[in-house]
Amino acid sequence: MANRYWVGKGGTWDATTTTNWSATSGGSSGASAPTSADSVFINQAQAMTITISGTASCLDLTDTNTIAHTFAGTGVLNISGSMTLSTTTTWSGTGAITFKATTTGKTITPNGVTISGAITFDGVGGAWSLGGALTMASGKSITLTNGTLDLNGKTCTTGTNFTTATGTKDLTFNAGTLVCPAASATAFNNAVPTGFTITAGTGVGVISMTAATAKTFVGGGSTFNCTLQNAGAGALTITDSNTFTNISNSVQPTTFTFTAGTTTTVTNWNINGTAGNLVTIGSATAASHTLSKASGTVNSNYLSISRSTATGGATWNAGANSTDGGNNSGWIFTAPPATATGNFLVFF
Amino acid sequence: MITIDFSFHSQYGTFADALVLEDDHGLTQDEINAIQQQRFNDWVFIITASPSEEA
After folding, report:
1. How far apart are CA B46 and CA B44, in angstroms?
2. What is the mean pLDDT of chain A?
3. CB under 8 Å to A126, separation ≥6 — which residues?
């Protein structure tokens, strides 16, 4: 394990070029290119462009350059430790970035830098905690293969898909938010649910599907210890039989479409429309879906519901201003009974 | 280094970020507020700009 310091102006970061690497801060160049065991420091205050080429590697990447500078190129970057960027960093490099740590305690602090290369988390036993919002450029995905991604109360925004891959992986929220803005059939794509856990941590985590047009949440049948929120006007299609702590919407009108034949289990249901802005609940095909809540009372309103079986033990009040679109079961389309708030006497 | 956590709430969800600065950054509170607001504005722009499928 060694340290490698970038020296000089711009240049190439690959597996072999020694032109810009020093073994000491501000020292002479010519040190070997960093490997996965070497921590990289970009700590010279100067404008530069570091072009990533081929396959570049490092342990930690710590960028404290206070002058505007750029990471460019199409090469891939494998980071086996933590990453901290500077407020003056631009990341225009389009090569993939893979976080490969196999131990816990790693941090990712983008510091306001939008990342233009797809990111994969792939380290068996690794764990990364966000030290700031992680925002991907449009079209750039996040893939969780192995390890734990802890949002740590921060916001993680994928540029296209959030995808799971074969491996043992965990998404921990700790009150963080995962934003999936793509109008895509795989905006959230739990493609490999085997080995995938979703952990609430402290506070309430949210997966926010924000596209203004149709998008899909491929749940994979997992248990999501978080809120799934439709935060865009476009219909949100939810596939598979999943379990959610909460399902909600932040915009009206919008649509929730469930795959027919699936059962969606919730602890809380907070979907409501407003006058003139109904929220539509339906199935993707001409058959029913099932919504299940074990206990308590759902009090929705301004919904338009069809092909929906509400069950599980809870009372499902659609609300007096909701519309029965047919083929429903278990929903109550009347105003919920008034709740007495005190004792009173009536004298005749 | 100092870390300043901040967040904005919107219909798209909470934007929670952290501003990491040198100890001697020399920024005023107004300048820090402006950076935070700009980050939020940039985030809203990104998520409302019709993200595309990866090529």
Report:
1. 5
2. 95
3. A99, A100, A101, A102, A103, A104, A106, A146, A147, A148
pLDDT band at A343 (very low <50, low <70, confident <90, very high): low
Q: How far apart are the first and last CA of chain A?
A: 91
Two tokens, residue A156: 């993680």
Q: What is the pLDDT of residues A105-155, one digit of tens each?
A: 999 999 999 999 999 999 999 999 999 999 999 999 999 999 999 999 999
A207 has pLDDT over 80: yes
Number of A/B CB contacts below 8 angstroms equals 114
A346 burial type by CB count under 10 A (0-12 exposed, 13-18 middle, 19+ buried): exposed
- A114 and chain B in contact, CB less than 8 A: yes
pLDDT for A107 equals: 98
Report helix, strand or coil for B24: coil
Q: What share of chain B is helix, strand, coil (3-state, %, to 5)?
A: 35, 35, 35
In angstroms, the separation between the Cα of residue A138 and the nearest Cα of chain B is: 5
Buried b (16+ CB within 10 A) or exposed e, A300-317: bbbbbbbbbbbebebebb
pLDDT higher than threshold 90 for residue A79 = yes
Q: Does B13 touch chain A (CB under 8 A)?
A: yes
Total of domains in chain B: 1
Q: Is residue B55 part of a domain?
A: no
- B9 within domain boundaries: yes
Instruction: Report chain A residues whose CB lies below 8 A from the CB of B19.
Output: 87, 111-112, 132
Give the closest of A118, A155, A251 to B11, CB-based: A251
* Residue B42 within any structural domain of the chain: yes
In the prediction, which pLDDT does A339 show?
A: 56
Q: Is residue B53 part of a domain?
A: no
Q: What is the pTM of this model?
A: 0.94
Residue B35's domain comprises 2-47
The interface predicted TM-score (ipTM) is 0.93
Residue in chain B lying closest to A181 (CA) = B47
Say whether B41 sits in a helix, a strand or coil: helix
Residues of chain B with Cβ-Cβ distance to A274 below 8 Å are none
- Which residue, among B1, B9, B14, would best test binding to A if mutated, counting the most A CBs under 10 Å from its CB? B14
